[in-house]
Design a protein that fits this description.
Blueprint: H1 3-7, H2 12-28, H3 41-46, H4 57-67, H5 75-89, H6 96-115, H7 121-124, H8 131-143, E1 147-150, E2 155-158, H9 166-177, H10 182-189, E3 195-196, H11 198-204, E4 209-215, E5 230-236, H12 240-248, E6 258-263, H13 266-285, H14 293-319, E7 325-328, E8 331-333, H15 338-352, H16 371-386, H17 400-410, E9 415-417, E10 423-425, H18 441-452, H19 465-469, H20 480-490, E11 495-499, E12 502-504, H21 509-517, E13 522-526, H22 534-544, H23 553-565, H24 569-573, H25 580-591, H26 595-606, H27 624-653, H28 662-673, H29 686-693, H30 700-712, H31 721-754, E14 759-766, E15 774-781, H32 782-800, H33 805-848
Parallel strand pairs: 4-5, 5-6
Antiparallel strand pairs: 1-2, 3-4, 6-7, 7-8, 9-10, 11-12, 11-13, 14-15
Helix pairs in contact: 2-6, 4-6, 5-6, 6-8, 9-13, 11-15, 13-14, 16-17, 16-20, 16-21, 22-23, 22-27, 25-26, 25-27, 27-31, 30-31
Length: 849
């Protein structure tokens, strides 16, 4: 290396050359120090004679144009080269400095695409020997529309030429925008990601975050004063007046959930955003832009740069919190970096949500639980209802519902073990850490205070939802149903439950699943015995319990209501099987709206006690316990009496003593009717009835229930009075048909013993109003069939000659009735003569003796 070049090693010009070479090297395969091609490094050095001589960018451009055109395999880079070559070709009459400067700018444009080494004013001024040469050449190139300076990227660009003046259009659109609302535009265009308060989330188990929202002097009043989510209100000040407004009003305008930050670069953001809005409007409205590929390329570059600048400036507000002035509750905060911001966010949430429970389970501790979490929640509340006296609610292994239970109920000491080894639910006794390790005391107390207000009128727990979801509680929606169920079970001895305003004596699985889905359809009322008439409760307690103790309101209402609700459907619907008094007591329990009204007014009235206007002392209610006991006994045995009466009816219909036991009845029925099913083909009626009569499988009770189910066409416990009437009617009809089948079977067996050939047995019956029924059984064998064949034909022809089936049927009916009457009378005479003859024979034998 020449000495003069060695001495330039640390000069700025030398560094510029090395930078230039390094930038271009990765893309165009390098300009190596040993290259001896035209305009190569060695060739360029040979023209440097003294210190201060440069190797200029245009020489590097010439090297690649002359020696390595095939190396430009990248389409985008090749297009840039082509733009520069085209610009030089259309330059026309130009000075050498203009041509060389154009090549230098073109080379820097190509390098800048990949190496971030753009043709700035500083670099362009170094591209020719003197600054004056550069300025003169630049002026000529700009006048010839070959080079253009782009303000948005602060660089010179080789310009292909276009009639579309983008800069002018941008200025025009910005002027049209006028004083647009900066904050509203930013909120629409930039939905900033929420900022999670990491330390608070880890310490409490509840994910909480702050949502960034933009505001300014004209829009801050349009925002909600109190939002459900915590917010960072980014106030954009564009003038000193905006800052004064911020200090006087904005800083104290929002709720305790919000942190406010003053940003003084609102005017800068407005300028950046205005350019983006203007470019977007140009893209929508400028038709000539879409037909000019050069203008489109220029627009694309400028819009990309504007968007990047806008995004960067907006994110800068959060990424560099030290640039803003932060306030909470109108008091300034010391926030210099993101770590300090995180500490402030967590401390604010800890203060705001001071009564929020600590639940370390991400599955349920959220506002919108997954389907898996909801399934686990449903299983958990059912287990709370059914297995509340068991450790871990009886869960085996470790399903998701057990994890929720452990994190929420077990760890919080809401489900605990009693002295007798049974587990039960209870609320925290105090807010001390030993009693309330998971901070449930505040939430539980608030629910308890609501229940205390329900003694006069029932209320829904849903009334608390909005309050419990908000500060200072901040309970997540996934947790609320489990918390409510725990409170209900813990207070079940003094809580009355209403579903759709109807009193329910207990929570069932179906009800608790319904409650989780629709808690708004359930209301609750707390009752205490204070103020109620003790005499009435003594009478109730005497009727229901034998220990002599007087129960409270729910202690009486629940067992009676449970008893009524467990009655069979027949007992709940029948009028035929109960006395009027028992029906009245049953109905008031089914339709009562309040346990107080039920026990103090409705039940005594149903039993015949009018307590209005009386002092309700012991005399006024004397005998109530006995009447109630009799009524409950009648309700209890109503269904069993129905079955007993049906047993007696079946025994009588089947020709047995009505007092016969069920076991004996079944045996007798089987012995009498076995084989009778072969004499009928009525599979859905008579034959099906016979098959049920002779069924051998199952116990006697199951056999009889099946028989009654067949007669009533539904299970007997679901019968109504109409079903009972229908069953008794069908039993009567089947009984009559059984008699007919028995006659056929007896006659068939008698004839079968006398006749060897095949035969048919017929039962002929005539029933007429006001007259006796006639029926006879006759057998027809082949011999009789041959004898009556011609008579049968004549009768059939005569019937058909009457001119209609109805007339034929009428004639046949009268003939059959008269024939059967004469037949019976003849049989009577014959029987009478036979008896007389037998009597004379016996008398003659006696005289001879």
């Amino acid at each position: 290396m020449p000495d003069w070049l060695q001495r330039m090693k640390y000069n700025s010009e030398y560094q510029y050359i090395l930078m230039l070479l390094e930038s271009v090297k990765p893309r165009v395969y390098g300009w190596t120090l040993g290259s001896r091609e035209a305009h190569g490094f060695q060739d360029a050095l040979s023209r440097c004679e003294r210190i201060g001589d440069w190797i200029y960018p245009w020489e590097i451009y010439e090297y690649f144009i002359l020696n390595q055109p095939a190396a430009l395999s990248d389409h985008f880079t090749h297009r840039r080269w082509a733009e520069v070559v085209t610009a030089i070709e259309r330059l026309g009459d130009a000075t050498e400095d203009e041509v060389n400067l154009l090549k230098a700018i073109g080379l820097l444009n190509i390098i800048g695409v990949h190496g971030n080494f753009k043709a700035s004013k500083e670099l362009v001024m170094l591209s020719l020997p003197t600054k004056r040469c550069v300025e003169k050449a630049l002026k000529g190139l700009i006048q010839k529309s070959v080079v253009q300076y782009r303000k948005f990227s602060s660089e010179y660009r080789v310009w292909q030429g276009s009639d579309f003046d983008l800069e002018e259009h941008v200025r025009e659109e910005i002027s049209k925008l006028g004083a647009f609302n900066l904050a509203e535009q930013l909120n629409t265009r930039h939905a900033l990601l929420p900022i999670v308060a990491r330390r608070y989330t880890i310490d409490s188990g509840t994910l909480r975050y702050f949502v960034p929202v933009f505001a300014d002097a004209s829009s801050y009043e349009k925002l909600e004063v109190k939002s459900r989510d915590a917010r960072i209100i980014i106030y954009l000040a564009e003038s000193s007046d905006d800052e004064v407004l911020f200090a006087e009003k904005v800083v104290s305008h929002f709720s305790e959930l919000d942190i406010v930050v003053l940003c003084r670069n609102g005017d800068q953001l407005r300028e950046i955003l205005a350019e983006s809005l203007a470019l977007e409007e140009i893209q929508r409205g400028a038709q000539s832009l879409h037909t000019d590929p050069v203008a489109q390329r220029e627009f694309s570059d400028r819009y990309a740069a504007a968007s990047t600048k806008e995004d960067g400036q907006v994110s800068y507000l959060i990424e560099e919190p030290g640039l803003g002035q932060w306030f909470y509750g109108a008091k300034p905060l010391e926030i210099t970096n993101k770590r300090a911001l995180q500490e402030v966010l967590s401390s604010v949430l800890k203060k705001v949500y001071r009564l929020s429970p600590k639940i370390f389970n991400e599955l349920i501790n959220r506002d919108k639980p997954s389907s898996q979490a909801n399934a686990a929640k449903n299983k958990l509340v059912v287990a709370m209802l059914n297995n509340g006296n068991e450790e871990d609610l009886g869960f085996d292994k470790f399903p998701p519902e057990k994890a929720i239970y452990r994190a929420m109920l077990r760890k919080a000491n809401i489900h605990v073990e009693g002295g007798n080894g049974n587990w039960y639910f209870k609320g925290p006794a105090s807010n001390k850490k030993a009693d309330d390790p998971c901070n449930f005391y505040g939430v539980w107390s608030r629910i308890d205070r609501l229940l205390n207000t329900t003694e006069k009128s029932q209320k829904s727990l849903v009334e608390l939802n909005r309050e419990l979801l908000a500060p200072p509680y901040g309970v997540k929606e996934g947790v609320l149903p489990i918390l409510y169920v725990a409170v209900i079970i813990a207070n079940q001895d003094e809580l009355a439950i209403y579903e759709n305003r109807v009193f329910k004596p207990r929570f069932t699985e179906e009800m608790i699943e319904h409650f989780v889905k629709r808690p708004d359809e359930f209301t609750f009322q707390r009752f205490r015995i204070a103020g109620l008439n003790s005499s009435i409760f003594k009478e109730y307690s005497k009727a229901l319990f034998k220990d002599g103790k007087t129960r409270d309101l729910l202690g009486i209402a629940k067992p009676i209501a449970n008893f009524v609700c467990s009655l069979p459907e027949y007992t709940l619907k029948t009028s035929r099987g109960l006395s009027k008094r028992s029906q009245a007591v049953r109905d008031v329990f089914r339709h009562s709206k309040s346990p107080v009204t039920l026990l103090v007014e409705e039940v005594p009235k149903a039993l015949g006690y009018d307590l209005k206007g009386k002092d309700q002392g012991d005399l006024a209610v004397a005998g109530l316990s006995q009447d109630l006991t009799e009524t409950l006994r009648e309700l209890k045995y109503c269904f069993s009496e129905l079955k007993d009466e049906m047993r007696k009816l079946c025994a009588q219909a089947l020709h047995f003593d009505k007092e016969i036991s069920l076991e004996e009845l079944r045996k007798s029925v089987y012995g009498r009717y076995i084989g009778l099913e072969d004499y009928t083909i009525d599979r859905d009626g008579q034959r099906a009835f016979i098959l049920r009569l002779i069924q051998k499988e199952g116990c006697d009770e199951a056999w009889f229930d099946g028989l009654l189910t067949f007669l009533g066409r539904k299970s007997i416990d679901k019968w109504s009075d109409n079903d009972r009437d229908a069953a008794e009617y069908r039993l009567t009809e089947f009984s009559r048909k059984l008699n007919d089948l028995e006659k056929l079977r007896v006659h068939y067996q008698e004839v079968g013993n006398k006749v060897d050939s095949e035969f048919e047995v017929y039962l002929i019956r005539s029933v007429k109003k006001g007259a006796s029924d006639y029926d006879e059984v006759v057998a027809v064998d082949s011999k009789r069939h041959a004898i009556i064949k011609s008579a049968k034909r004549e009768i059939t022809e005569r019937l058909e000659e009457l001119g209609g089936q109805e007339l034929g049927l009428a004639a046949l009916a009268e003939v059959v009735d008269e024939f059967l009457a004469k037949y019976r009378e003849s049989n009577k005479q014959q029987l009478k003569a036979t008896k007389l003859k037998a009597k004379k024979t016996v008398k003659g034998r006696n005289e001879m003796a």
